[in-house]
């Protein structure tokens, strides 16, 4: 476990324990994730979405015919989810009496710099995936950690996104502050994340009873894992 702070957030409205701004997340739209997932799982799959937030991806999966259980530790986030069963829980403490065809862990949650917390996340995925099911993870491509630089860009729909205060405090670690602006409102989110190359990720998955079964995208950022 690193001694560096892992998350911190500021701005108007509720801020979750991992530094995410509920009011900002409520403004976001899907960017092709529901269709990507839909193409990689069985029709009508029962999906457990861990860290579902305000339902940005949830709602698209529902529209594509899937049954979704949306999990988030923030009741304020889940208050924006419509049409899905919701469960207010941290990922590591979740213990539902059922398993699912698909378990989703997106938004780079798996890249937390806290090794113990990552291991607990993966054990939570394994607890809830059916033996013939799959876990879909989203990570940054490993080379991103070497190439990313501070930026500011127009993200469309009146959103501006910037990365500032970028640092690399140790091997495989990257810390930065994201700044999000919508109209007159601005939020910041500091994160410290850890590079997960294929070998490290496979070892981490194996420790939780999972293994890599393939990738959903050419950049290998979306990973499909199955029970070992």
Account of the protein in words:
Keywords: Methyltransferase, Transferase. It comes from Acrocarpospora corrugata. Pfam families: Methyltransf_25. Residues 47-133 form the Methyltransferase domain. GO terms for molecular function: methyltransferase activity. The chain is an alpha/beta fold and 228 residues long. It has a domain at 28-141 and 196-227: Vaccinia Virus protein VP39 (Rossmann fold). 21% of the residues lie in helices and 36% in strands. The protein is built from 7 helices and 12 strands. The strands form 2 sheets. A 7-stranded mixed sheet has the order 4-3-2-5-6-12-11. A hairpin with a 2-residue loop joins strand 7 (151-156) and strand 8 (159-167). The longest helix is centred in the middle third of the chain and has 14 residues, at 115-128. The two termini are 26 Å apart. The mean pLDDT is 96.
Strand and helix layout:
Blueprint (H helix, E strand, L loop, with lengths): L6 E4 L11 H4 L7 H6 L7 E5 L7 H6 L3 E6 L2 H4 L6 E4 L11 E6 L9 H14 E10 L5 H4 L3 E6 L2 E9 L5 E10 L2 E10 L3 H10 L2 E6 L6 E6 L1
Parallel strand pairs: 2-3, 2-5, 3-4, 5-6
Antiparallel strand pairs: 1-10, 6-12, 7-8, 8-9, 9-10, 11-12
Tags for this entry?
alpha/beta; 21% helix; 228 residues; methyltransferase; 7 helices; Methyltransf_25; globular; Rossmann fold
